[in-house]
Amino acid sequence: MEAGRGIMALDQTLLPHEERSIHLASVPELCEAIGSLRIRGAPMLGLAGLAGVAIAAETGDASLAELEAASATIAATRPTAADLGAGVRRAVRRARECSSATERRQALWQLADDAVREQYEIDGRIAAAGVSLLTGAGAVLTHCNTGALATGGRGTALAVVAEAFAMGHIQRCYATETRPLLQGARLTMWELDRLGIPGTLVPDTAAAALIAAGRVGAVVTGADRIAANGDTANKIGTYGLALAAQAHGVPFFVAAPRSTFDVACPDGSAIPIEFRREDEVGGFGGQRWAPAGAGAFNPAFDVTPASLIGAIATDAGVLKPPYGRSIAAAFGVELSGPD
What we know:
Blueprint: E1 7-10, E2 21-24, H1 27-35, H2 42-59, H3 64-75, H4 82-96, H5 101-130, E3 138-142, H6 148-151, H7 157-166, E4 170-176, H8 183-195, E5 199-202, H9 207-212, E6 218-221, E7 225-227, E8 232-235, H10 238-247, E9 252-255, E10 261-262, E11 283-284, E12 287-288, E13 301-304, E14 311-314, E15 317-319, H11 323-331
Parallel strand pairs: 3-4, 3-6, 4-5, 6-9, 7-10, 9-14
Antiparallel strand pairs: 1-2, 7-8, 8-13, 11-12, 14-15
Helix pairs in contact: 2-3, 2-4, 2-5, 3-4, 4-5, 5-7
């Protein structure tokens, strides 16, 4: 974070071939970076959203009305990600506690810096909680990207994988390509290499066969929003992995911070699902393999029912079914609806 100047972020669309940082000093620049996935990953979006409100205060008059309008604009860029909305709301709450524009600017940048440090601690607690789920797994399969790139700290599911590898519980991590934007191939494989964890890239279409062949002892993913009953939205393709895991008796786990939970959302049917441009499906990186003008169905996320999830590793410990009860207890709220 650069108080008075903006933020620096690694442009994730260029990985693994180029490591280039981008400077973001306005709300439109930040929104473009979020929408184009230069910045991505649920917890990282929370940090970006919070910093975006600080940027809005720096580039405008820092009035509450202006900051609230900026927060709504930022949150709308990725509607499925609970952390993004949580980050901007946290920033606005802090701004409301201040009595002047100068105080708001200082307080928001301080909050942004504090949030980055907190994320490292949160990720560490997720890793410590989740490692018990992978004891003796031997090898795991993961989907999309859930490492430091996705959180700004240590990561969620990939931090659990790294902790399990360090303790000798696993020897290999399989990563799906995660089409159509290849976050697994480009980002997770890059992070596995930097972590020193043996990694194997798997086409999305081969993941079910990998599970059926008994090559993995567990599947572990992150999450973008978790409803009060445990239904979980994550990168498109997650639901299919959970179904394949259940069919072959392989445990399926989720790792996410408490900021990813939406206790006001009763179940997965109420989670807003982001749809992205059709042209993302027919090509990548400037190359086109589908006929020009070909239509495409391109949801960014799907919802995995709570009944398919064996456990959720969080910074408050491991949550187990029935999730309605365990989530309510973790958040200190009354249980509403069925478990």
